[in-house]
Amino acid sequence: MNALEGIKILDLSRLMPFEYCTLLLADMGAEVLKIEEPGRGDYMRWLPPKMREENAAFLLLNRNKKSMTLNLKKKEGQDILRKLVRDNDVLFESYRPGVMSRMGLGYKELKEVNPKLIYCSATGYGQSGPYKDRPGHDINYISIAGILGVTGRHTGAPVIPGIPIADMSVGAFSALAILAALIAREKSGEGQFIDISMTDVALSQNVINLAMHLAGGKEMMDLTGKEPYYNIYETRDGKYVSLGNIEERFWENFCEGVGRPDLIEHHSSKGKEKERVAKELREVMLGKTRDEWVNQMKDKDVCIAPVYSIEEVLGDPHLIHREMFAEVDHPVEGRIKQISFPIKFSNTPAEIRSPPPALGEHTSEILRKMGYDKKGLERLESDGVI
After folding, report:
1. Domain closes at, from 306, 336, 363
2. Considering the entire predicted model, what is its pTM?
């Protein structure tokens, strides 16, 4: 049994961050039906980089889902969605504020169809406020949230993170919000509207920097590369290791491990002394290769890790042991690798049940269950509804 078995979700969202939300829910057993634009589908399907025909990220994010094409600009397409809403628990969408309401498909309208409906709208800036109608992408959201401004401070200029932080976080937070709303519905019998903003989510994670500012600029800890104990060091082979020895006992073990016990007392040194320690450590770390350092420290209780390439990630023995990679057979793409669900349940494990769906693969199946016959399906297709 899966944790969300029996829960039915209509997914009207597009692009990676929102696909991540419904991927998490689908892996936990929810039945997710992607509603896609006829002919075009989810934009992510056709963007590079592609495997054989479809986008590689799309194939990682859309397993365990079904796909139905439906033109929501057509009145009959809107009517079909309303009928679907009657039998679904959740509607998840990522249009700009007001778009769904203008089609008569906003929460106000659809809760009349299904009072128990949980309606989640995920956007860049939220459903209200001065920025609500602005376009944007991750780089803009983390700018407003103050994350970009403190990333790379030691370089003298902001540095764009290696993943889209707000994008991926809103997927996880949306899934969390939907689960909370499902629990609340069990108690009240009522659905609700969820307004989730990428900018708000990013801001909520900027705790350390906000705390330091609210404390009058006093540093709790600096995790942006300014401290010798929490930094990245190049090694003899041109690779890198990451050190995270925030606690003094880890720092002490590290200094002993590299043969520099004289540096133990300088864990929290400031100014020129801190610069000297960092400079000397850079020289020390150049004395061995990345893997030599990692192996030397593995039994010394030190927070150290190799900085991996993506190829190395796929071969890491710990991640393999954790079963973080899986494969699934796809009718077009062949056998494709997947990133497994990241949480381990003892009684209701998440699982991969089906490959990512082809565009509109389940349209006929869904509509036949709703009472449409062959002639009806042909009419809907000729009218551009599906």
Report:
1. 306
2. 0.94
